[in-house]
Amino acid sequence: xxxxxxxxxxxxxxxxxxxxxxxxxxxxxxxxxxxxxxxxxxxxxxxxxxxxxxxxxxxxxxxxxxxxxxxxxxxx
Length: 76
Fold this sequence. Notes:
Number of helices: 3
Largest sheet: none
């Protein structure tokens, strides 16, 4: 079951790349790097969520990261 999900997500990522790359061909290299970075990051997160659906979301990760800073700023 997990392999089917991984293959499905990989197929969707490949189709997105195929569809968008023709319009990115005339773009600046920074646009291509940003598109590729966001696409690969989303692909990895999707695969990780298939393997472990109880992973925390981005909001929970940011709250854990910035919680010590916010408590420090509140005490001053």
